[in-house]
Design a protein that fits this description.
- The complex is a heterodimer of chains A (315) and B (595).
- Chain A has helices at residues 2-29, 34-39, 46-56, 62-74, 88-123, 128-142, 145-159, 175-208, 212-219, 224-261, 267-276, 280-308, 310-314.
- Chain A is mainly α and 315 residues long.
- Chain B is α/β, with parallel strands linked by helices and 595 residues long.
- Chain B is 54% helix and 12% strand.
- Chain B is built from 24 helices and 11 strands.
- In chain B, the strands form 2 sheets. In chain B, strands 7-8-9-4-10-11 form a 6-stranded mixed beta sheet, with helices on both faces.
- In chain B, a hairpin with a 2-residue loop joins β2 and β3 (346-358).
- In chain B, α3 packs across α12 (260-283) and α17 packs parallel to α19 (484-496).
- Chain B is elongated, with a radius of gyration of 34 Å.
- Classes of the chains: A mainly alpha (315), B alpha/beta (595).
- Chains A and B meet through α1, α6, α7, α9 and α10 of A and α6, α7, α10, α11 and α12 of B.
Chain lengths: 315, 595
């Protein structure tokens, strides 16, 4: 198992390096003189343009700029915001837990729902219940999470008045209130994810139930619960776990929009503020943090996969 | 020669057959029609829309639906229906262009990477993985941040985010096809690479690619809606469903109804793309057929089976076995067992009145060529065949005084593994790859004896492993870490851990090599004597029969044609088919195998 973790880390590090090149390379795409554009366009005061040029060392050759930037990033120094001139690292550190909390709640909601729905359908593929569940999950695949968010707000905040429509309270300050404010954003993100996962669990389970080793389990005298929980579920979880890894990226991306709707001060709102202010160093910093979250969760998913499939551990 | 004339002479091609299947899928067809209609309505919106979508104050702000404004008006008094139609044009054009753009990158890069392989493949895939590690929407937002907001930047941004997934798909498919024999053969006879790619790789890559592209169209539409919702995509006055949602959101507290039209438009369109994708997947033969289940883990016995067959008819097809099944004091008595398998052409009779009996402590060989129904018989006794397709339509299976065909699932499950155990043909597939073998053996004890604590189960497991000659410490292994012979020993240990009265062994040595076969047979012989259990030994190998069985039941085409002591079968076969079977063992060998 330790070998698996080490191998995956060895793959992850060069990948992070390539990604960092890509993210830093965004600066090349800026039309015209980057310093002028970033300082606010042709009307920007010359002082500001020079300041930006100085700050980002835009006169240096690109590789030197990159290495300088990477050197900072490795020491967790993402530079200063062009807009507020505050250190980006401090802001990231403050916002990271907010987004991670949201993501954790999304997982906590989506995974049990997906298991329940997927098992119910996968045990009897083609049955009425199965078809109903698949139509339902198909609908949630098609609906954008931010629209679900709007409908939830309309229903539970505007009509019923049960939940606040937006705003954020820190988990440490008041866990109950945190939950009340996070449940709608998390549900909006979790429904689509649960739909994708449930379909995987269902397909996986339907396949596995045909496997010879399931026949062995029946021949050993297992009850339905013993056969499904003791044998089939683990095998059928594998495709779902693979997809879980892919879904992390989708949820992280959508969380940007959801954070904006519910005014949650996480990484997503930081990214959008930076986009509006053309604050390139912040955009790069946030994007890189998103990548690291994504890579780390993928690593965890790989480890879970290894736990499910002993052959992967050895290979 | 054009492609059309070249195709004209061929029998109906893959594409046409796929289209015929797709056409019969009503949901997918309806979805496809909806999408075409939507695209047309969008393209023609300047002609058919009731108002100019950008015209303000066509009515009061936030009007409800009416004859003048079917879907009401927005915050600036613009007609919502007209804006939806323009949004359809925006979204459809956007989705099609982005997917086309992504394909233009993915197809050549993926084919090259998969076909050339080696270091190039390695480098390209690493870069694709790196792009994929940036969450798609974050990547799109970042690209828009440097290019400036607008549909064109959004298009490039989303295409960049979508291309790696498609490239990986093409590459994986190309890689798989490259390994195929016919492609290797093309190389050997010197077919130019470009031709191999065009003739062999491309057609095989196309099916999954078409399916993926239709799913991707929906995803791109969602991404565009997201970016436009954030104000980074479509810019006013251009209407897009995402930007319409954003405006509706600004007034959600006062006019919540207005989030519905653009939201439903997005949802319906994406749903339609997904339905078309699912339909294409099924039509192109990529989706596994869906099966319905009867009772899980239990072969269905049809009601007709409960009725006694009219006298004189049932025993007739299987007189040899029926006489045997009449015997008293048998442990297992199968009489007139008939079983149907559902096929697309209707039910097919696989067992047509199988009868035989096994006495306590006796070993009965069930022999016959492949396809005669001997494995089906062994599985039907334990009711392990899935329903559908299998249904038992007649007969009785009496085991130790109980009719297994009339037992409810709970009671049968209590017998399975405890009094009635089974060893299967392929030990690797029959063991759960994700659990240690000790765990899998211990389960039998824990399932049948809820009182047995963990330690007792572990002790019994260790004993069972020792019994089959495996050191207890090897129990911590996973099936893939054991040799084929060891795995079959594990299966035997699993079957014997509760000391069953009858062991059904379905070709237990067929998947093993010859020396291991002999060891496993020797082990079964020893254990049979030690535990005093009866064995139903299913095999096509007459040598094995001679070695281990007391009596033999010869099966042919779903019936038992002869039952006799093993010596009589070899020296004085009664049925012509038995003589036929024996004639395949040459004279000299008969001497060797006959006891």
């Amino acid at each position: 198992m330790l070998g698996l973790v080490v191998r995956r880390l060895l793959v992850a590090i060069p990948m992070l390096l390539i990604t960092s090149v890509l993210i830093f390379g965004l600066v090349v795409l800026i039309p015209g003189d980057a310093a002028v554009t970033l300082a606010g366009g042709p009307d920007a005061p010359p002082g500001a343009v020079e300041e930006v040029r100085e700050e980002l060392q835009l006169d240096e050759p690109l590789p030197a700029q990159y290495l300088d930037w990477l050197g900072g990033v490795v020491r967790l120094d993402f530079g200063d915001s062009l807009y507020s001139h505050e250190p980006i690292t401090d802001e990231l550190a403050e916002r990271l837990p907010v987004t991670l909390g949201l993501a954790a709640l999304v997982f906590g909601l989506a995974v049990p729902v997906a298991l329940l729905v997927g098992v119910a359908g996968g045990l009897r593929p083609g049955s009425l219940l199965d078809r109903a569940l698949m139509v339902g999950s198909g609908a949630f695949l098609a609906v954008p999470p931010f629209w679900i968010a709007l409908v939830l707000v309309t229903l539970f905040a505007v009509r019923l008045g049960w939940l606040p429509p937006f705003g954020y309270v820190e988990l440490r300050a008041d866990p109950g209130e945190w939950f009340r404010r996070m449940i709608m954003p998390a549900a909006a993100l979790a429904l689509g994810m649960a739909a994708v996962l449930a379909r995987q669990v269902r397909g996986g389970l339907a396949d596995v139930m045909q496997a010879p080793y399931i026949r062995t389990a029946w021949a050993k005298g297992g009850s339905t619960r013993q056969v499904v929980v003791g044998h089939a579920l683990k095998g059928s979880a594998m495709p779902a776990v693979t997809v879980l890894g892919l879904q992390v990226g989708v949820v992280l991306g959508s969380s940007v929009i959801i954070e904006r709707i519910f005014t949650i001060p996480g990484l997503g709102t930081y990214l959008l503020e930076a986009v509006n202010a053309q604050d390139l160093p912040v955009v790069q910093g946030v994007a890189l943090v998103f990548v690291v979250i994504h890579v780390v969760t993928s690593l965890l998913v790989d480890i879970a996969y290894g736990w499910l499939n002993p052959k992967v551990r050895a290979a | 020669m054009s492609a059309a004339t070249r195709d004209a002479g061929r029998p109906p091609g893959r594409a046409r057959r796929a289209w015929a299947r797709f056409r019969r899928d009503r949901l997918a067809l309806a979805a496809a029609v909806f999408l075409v209609a939507l695209a047309l309505a969008g393209a023609l919106h300047p002609l058919i829309a009731p108002y100019d979508p950008a015209e303000q104050e066509t009515g009061r702000p936030f009007e409800g639906p009416s004859g003048r404004h079917w879907l009401g008006t927005d915050d600036l008094g613009r007609d919502v229906l007209s804006r939806l139609l323009e949004g359809a044009a925006t979204s459809m054009r956007f989705s099609l262009l982005v997917v086309a753009l992504a394909l233009v990158v993915a197809l050549p890069v993926g084919l090259l990477s998969g076909y050339v392989g080696g270091r190039l493949d390695n480098v390209l895939m690493r870069v694709m993985d790196a792009v994929m590690s940036i969450p798609a929407l974050v990547l799109a937002i970042a690209v828009v941040a440097v290019l400036g907001a607008g549909l064109d930047s959004a298009m490039i941004a989303i295409a960049v985010a979508m291309a790696p997934g498609l490239t990986r798909l093409v590459r994986g498919q190309a890689l798989a096809v490259r390994e195929e024999t016919f492609v290797e053969a093309s190389h050997v006879i010197g077919t130019p690479a470009a031709r191999v790619v065009r003739r062999h790789l491309l057609p095989n890559v196309l099916s999954p690619l078409i399916v993926q592209a239709s799913i991707l169209l929906g995803l791109v539409l969602l991404a565009e809606a997201g970016l436009s919702f954030l104000g980074l995509g479509a810019q006013p006055p251009t209407a897009s469903w995402g930007s319409m949602l954003q405006r509706a959101y600004d007034s959600v507290l006062s006019h919540p109804w207005h989030v519905l039209p653009p939201g439903l438009a997005i949802a319906l369109t994406v749903l339609a793309f997904n339905a078309v994708g699912d339909g294409l997947r099924a039509a192109l033969g990529a989706a596994p057929p869906v099966r319905k289940h009867g009772r899980l883990g239990l072969t269905t016995v049809s009601d007709r089976a409960a009725e006694p067959a009219p006298d004189g008819i049932e025993p007739a097809p299987d007189a040899a076995g029926a006489a045997d099944a009449d015997g008293d004091g048998a442990l297992l008595r199968v009489a007139g067992l008939r079983l149907d398998l559902a096929t697309p052409a209707g039910p097919r009779r696989v067992l047509d009145g199988v009868s035989f009996s096994v006495a306590p402590g006796e070993t009965l060989g069930l022999v016959g060529e492949s396809g005669c129904g001997k494995t089906v018989t062994s599985l039907a006794i334990m009711r392990l065949l899935p329903s559908p397709p299998a249904t038992i339509v007649g007969g009785t299976v009496r085991f130790d005084g109980r009719d297994l065909l009339r037992l409810p699932f709970r009671d049968l499950a209590r017998l399975r593994g405890r009094e009635l155990a089974m060893v299967f043909q392929d030990p690797l597939a029959s063991l759960n790859p994700g659990l240690t073998v000790a765990h899998q053996i211990g389960q039998v004890v824990r399932w049948h004896e809820p009182d047995a604590d963990r330690r007792a189960a572990a002790r019994r497991t260790a004993e069972a492993l020792e019994l089959v000659g495996i050191p207890a410490a090897r129990g911590r292994s996973y099936p893939h870490e054991l040799s084929g012979g060891m795995r079959q020993r594990v299966m035997i240990a699993m079957a014997l851990v509760c000391r069953p009265k009858l062991l059904i062994a379905d070709e237990p040595t067929t998947a093993l090599d010859v020396t291991v076969q002999a060891q496993v047979l020797e082990l079964l012989k020893e254990l049979r004597a030690e535990l005093g259990m009866a064995v139903l030994f299913v095999t096509h190998d007459l040598g094995v029969v001679a070695d281990i069985c007391d009596r033999v039941a010869v099966m042919r085409a779903g019936r038992v044609v002869e039952v006799a002591p093993v010596r009589d079968v070899f020296h004085a076969p009664q049925h012509p088919y038995t003589r036929h079977l024996l004639s395949h063992v040459t004279a000299g060998e008969t001497e060797l195998v006959a006891p």
